[in-house]
Amino acid sequence: MRNLTDRERRTIIDELLTRLKGGKLVHGVLTEVARKFSCDRSSVSRLWTQYQSTCTNGISEGERRSRIKTNSGRKQIDRDEVAQKLSQVPAEQRLVVRRTAVAAGLTRYLVSAMLKEGRLHRRSTRIKPALTTENKHKRVEHVLSYIDDATHNFEPMENVIHIDEKWFNQDKNTRTYMLLEGELPPQRDRKSNNFIPKTMFLAAVARPRYDFQRKCRWSGKIGIWALTEEYVAQRSSKYRPRAEWPRQQWRDPIFVQQDNAKPHVSPFDPDILAAGLEGGWSIRLIFQPPNSPDLNALDLGLFASLQSI
């Protein structure tokens, strides 16, 4: 016994409606209509009964569509129940789909479906420094030092420079190339990952601002230098324009913030204090709070953006 299409069902109902006499079907009409449309009489009878019941329930034209589409096949598992099972699994065991499915007693398909439907989300976390009570106090003191005593607002910090060192590898283990059809990726070989050359760079940035004397915007990028060789730096070139501090602020005290690495020189070193006063400048070194890389703009994202290129 074949299933009727929606179009055939509408046609059969229209045929039965034309054969009504006194609002009822006479004996033998269902058999004749079933024979005409090459289907079983019981199918026509069920279709007519469904049509009449839906008309009685308030549907003006009656229900003529098949209910097989909504009632056939395997029923979808309740996603709320799946979410309840997943919530009982510790987050440490919900790292990958396979491990999550085993821990929750679900199939990998269900876990993947929850991700695709947006009921389950992937989130990345990074290990953060463990702060002691003293570290927290230092952070608060550092932040409070940038509050203007007169207005109780944060200072613009236009006289603060952030400096930091960073190792950059000249190559990385995996590289992705955009190749045309028929092209082959370049062959790269190293003895091991330990033999990839790397260079330490020192970078210095400040807050961008508008230089009213030069009538241009200063990006705040002071420079980045490799700590591997000594040479006379170019004052300006087409590859690296000369970076100059805004003229209207060159007499203001400038604070160069560095981290607390042991090799770093003390801010109170006599040679450093003397060098900071040369040429009429007033440059001073300060330490950022310990275990607080998030208080340095270079650690917050600049180095990561450079390394992603």
From TrEMBL:
GO molecular function: nucleic acid binding
DUF7769 domain location: 4-56
InterPro entries membership: DUF7769, RNaseH_sf
Listed Gene3D superfamilies: Ribonuclease H-like superfamily/Ribonuclease H (3.30.420.10)
PANTHER family cross-referenced by the UniProt entry: OS01G0541250 PROTEIN
Name of this protein: DUF7769 domain-containing protein
Organism: Phytophthora nicotianae P1976
Lineage: Eukaryota, Sar, Stramenopiles, Oomycota, Peronosporomycetes
